[in-house]
Amino acid sequence: MKIVRVRLPGEEIAYGAVEPEGIRIHQGTPFLAWEPTAGLIPFADAHLLAPVFPTKVVCVGRNYAEHAAEHGVAVPDEPVIFLKPSTAVIGPGAAIVIPPGAGEVHHEAELAIVVGKVSHRVPAEDASAYILGYTAANDVSSRTLQKKDGQWTRAKGFDTFCPLGPAIETEVDPLGLRISCSVNGELRQDASTEDMVFGVAEIFAFVTRVMTLLPGDVVLTGTPAGVGPIRPGDRVEVEIERIGVLLNPVVAGS
Ligand code: MG
Question: What's the CA-to-centroid distance between 216 and ligand 1, angstroms?
Answer without folding.
Answer: 19
